[in-house]
């Protein structure tokens, strides 16, 4: 597992449509110039926050490659204002996070990652936002959520799923990709982590390896910032 460079933490509050959004920005002395990332957390009604271990690992992997990384709490989670809105208002929260990152790093394209509820909401926004160049979805809740919007998403993306994820069974994820137009399916990398549950318990090193390998294949220049 990679060890990120020295982290410059910046706690910030973003002006969200339902109240301020608590956020944490990681930067480093020499960030890679081409991408800046937003990472979205799992369901807040079940304890999901930006400090979730999967979200933290994704942020750590991205930062280890030199990307600035923004995590934030959806409305009603942590110190964020507002109330949970079943994914509707949360989509606006994601847009606020993207706006902030675009303002802070105007020379960068944006990368959007999300875990579970954060993947369902975040990827929908990221697919539609022209500033977002690439996407990563982890632990997609495919058994209970409508993810068919991904059929129309032509952007490069990696989907990382636990092979034993009870909220997104392998057959549902495979069917989701199989139903994409061929050109969109070719832009989708699907990784199943053997033996992993929804939370990738004991398997976060494999999440790190899969995400980092995919990004390094797409961006060989990031190898200079890869601290492993």
Number of structural domains = 1
Percent of residues in beta strands: 15-25%
Q: What form results from the Cα inertia axes?
A: globular
Which consecutive residue ranges, at least 5 long each, have pLDDT under 50? none
Distance between the termini: 7 Å
* Broad CATH class: Alpha Beta
> What would you call the structural class?
alpha/beta
Strand order of the largest sheet: 1-2-4-3-5-6-7-8
User: What's the helix count?
Assistant: 6
Mean pLDDT: 94
For CATH, the homologous superfamily is named as Alpha/Beta hydrolase fold, catalytic domain
* CATH-derived topology: Rossmann fold
Which CATH architecture?
3-Layer(aba) Sandwich
List keywords for this structure.
globular; 8 strands; 24% strand; alpha/beta; Rossmann fold; 228 residues
Describe the 3D structure.
The mean pLDDT is 94. This protein is α/β, with parallel strands linked by helices and 228 residues long. β1 (8-16) and β2 (19-27) form a beta hairpin. The longest helix is centred in the middle third of the chain and has 17 residues, at 88-104. The radius of gyration is 16 Å and the shape is globular. The termini are close together. Helices cover 30% and strands 24% of the residues. It has helices spanning 53-64, 88-104, 117-128, 170-178, 182-185, 204-218; strands at 8-16, 19-27, 35-40, 69-72, 109-115, 132-138, 157-162, 188-193. It has a single domain (8-225), classed as Alpha/Beta hydrolase fold, catalytic domain (Rossmann fold, 3-Layer(aba) Sandwich).
């Amino acid at each position: 597992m990679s060890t990120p460079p020295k982290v410059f933490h910046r706690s910030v509050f973003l002006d969200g449509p339902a109240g301020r959004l608590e956020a944490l920005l990681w930067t480093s002395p020499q960030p890679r110039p081409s991408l800046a990332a937003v990472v979205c957390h799992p369901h807040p009604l079940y304890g999901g926050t930006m400090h979730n271990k999967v979200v933290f690992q994704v942020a750590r992997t991205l930062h280890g490659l030199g990307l600035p990384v923004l995590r934030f709490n959806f409305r009603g989670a942590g110190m964020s204002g507002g109330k949970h809105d079943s994914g509707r208002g949360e989509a606006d929260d994601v847009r606020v996070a993207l706006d902030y990152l675009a303002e802070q790093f105007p020379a960068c394209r944006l990368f959007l990652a999300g875990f579970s509820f954060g993947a369902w909401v975040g990827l929908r926004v990221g697919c539609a936002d022209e500033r977002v160049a690439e996407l990563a979805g982890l632990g997609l809740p495919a058994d209970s959520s409508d993810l068919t919007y991904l059929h129309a998403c032509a952007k490069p993306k990696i989907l990382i799923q636990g092979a034993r994820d009870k909220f997104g069974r392998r057959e549902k994820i495979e069917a989701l990709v199989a139903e994409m137009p061929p050109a969109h399916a070719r832009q989708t990398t699907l990784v199943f982590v053997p033996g992993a549950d929804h939370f990738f318990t004991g398997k976060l090193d494999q999440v790190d390896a899969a995400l980092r390998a995919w990004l390094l294949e797409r961006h060989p220049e990031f190898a200079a910032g890869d601290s492993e």
